[in-house]
Request: fold
Amino acid sequence: MSEEILNKLKQAVVDGEAEQTAELARQGLDQGLDPLTLIDEGLTPGMNRIGELFSSGEFFLPELVIGGDAMKAALAILEPALVGNQEREIVGRVVIGTVEGDIHEIGKTLVGIMLTANGFDVDDIGADKSAAEFVAAVKENGATLVGASALLTTTMAEQQSIIEALEEAGLRDQVKVMIGGAPVSQSWADSIGADGYAANAISAVDLAFRLIDAPA
Ligand code: HCB
Reply:
């Protein structure tokens, strides 16, 4: 039963059927499925499949757009179930965003939702944000952790720009930087002096707790 709904979710994302994707997410919750399972084993494989079809020339930009919209529609249904009632103490303040020149927003949004669900105060500054905008947001809310997302090989270098901008602003000692996104890796994180790399939202939460030295 759960496998059936997960396969249908994946297919609905690939087909770019936003309403159907949202409805299937709702059905999954009604059936008692964990929202994380619906994301990891339904929605995300759908997005990855779209990426493959784009690479092989079978899909074009419009399919990327409507697939992204379908995933966002389902996330809107799943978010309340992930976040629940937030009555715990704030464990840390995070600024998260996608780097300049890059409009992919779904991954960082999901990481932000998961951090919120785990007690972090999250300032999601959005996509296509410059290093200066990251620094301004850190100053504004006193964040001690930055999450920088990059989905394009052409925008990965902006993650390094954020680290350099934090250094220039004299904030690097107080702020940890974790990076993520499809083309990013641990070795890239090491090479630019980031404090950590996370491959998905769950490992981002683990990493965030380790970086700010708080008990999970
Ligand atoms: Co886009 N796109 N795209 N795209 N896109 C990718 C990323 C390609 C890999 C597709 C491909 O070729 N196979 C490719 C990049 C190739 C490369 O550079 N190596 C690509 C391209 C080329 C482009 C355009 C250049 C296409 C064009 O215009 N010709 C263009 C770029 C525009 C721009 O940014 N300037 C473009 C545009 C788009 C959209 C806007 C149509 C759409 C995004 C819609 C939106 O966000 N609202 C889109 C989409 C949907 C994709 C794919 C299909 C899915 C991305 C996604 O949302 N994945 C993607 C293929 C793929 O990634 N497999 C394709 C789902 C999320 C949940 O995963 O990896 O983003 P995630 O995030 C994870 C993980 O990385 C980690 O946790 C998240 C949650 O688990 N993580 C972090 C992410 N950020 C983190 C930060 C942290 O601190 C910690 C962890």
Residues 2-82 form a domain with the Methyltransferase, Methionine Synthase (B12-binding Domains); Chain A, domain 1 fold (CATH 1.10.1240.10). Strands lie at 92-99, 120-129, 145-149, 176-180, 196-197.
